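This part of the workshop introduces the protein records we will be handling. As an example, a complete record with its sequence and its structure tokens follows.
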Amino acid sequence: MLLCLVVISLLANISLLGMDNAIHSNRLTTSFMSSSIALQRAQRAINLAEVAIDLQAEFTVNSAFEPVSQGMFPQFYNSGSRLQSTWQQLLKNDLCFSNKHTVMQTLEVKPASKLNRLSTHKKLISAYMIEHLLSQRKTATSYYRITACGVGLDGFTLAIVQTMVRYETSWQRVSWQQIR
């Protein structure tokens, strides 16, 4: 009888260990998928920003550090007595998803409890901002830095991608990097 109880407890421990591995594997898969989707959304925002460069909007900010054209900034802005980089200031102050500072993309989601209703909620999925980089001389060529943020499935995973674009008559991507 004692031997039977020992065997049963051993089998129970083995099955719990297998269950723990399955749960851990499921969490890793979910985390990877969320990160991958966040990166894809950030890349999509980069593509939208590259198309927006063709519009050649005004790249200035007002005294409250809000852009005159939404999501369009000069490379540096004055902060007291020193110049600060715009994208670093946005990330530092958590303004990545601010209606006044970035161009945001949303996804319409119907609430699960009211499937037959016409009402939908908008879920934030990505945002971008464009900086007009300073140049040494006046030429027809301009350079821009695009910073984009993408949100994963869980709403907590964040991917930040940055690219440099050269523009003469059309845009050309010069570099690309994932910041976070």
User: Anything to note?
Assistant: The first helix runs from residue 2 to 53. The first strand starts at residue 72 and ends at 74. The beta strands are 72-74, 76-79, 82-85, 103-109, 121-132, 142-151, 158-167, 171-178.
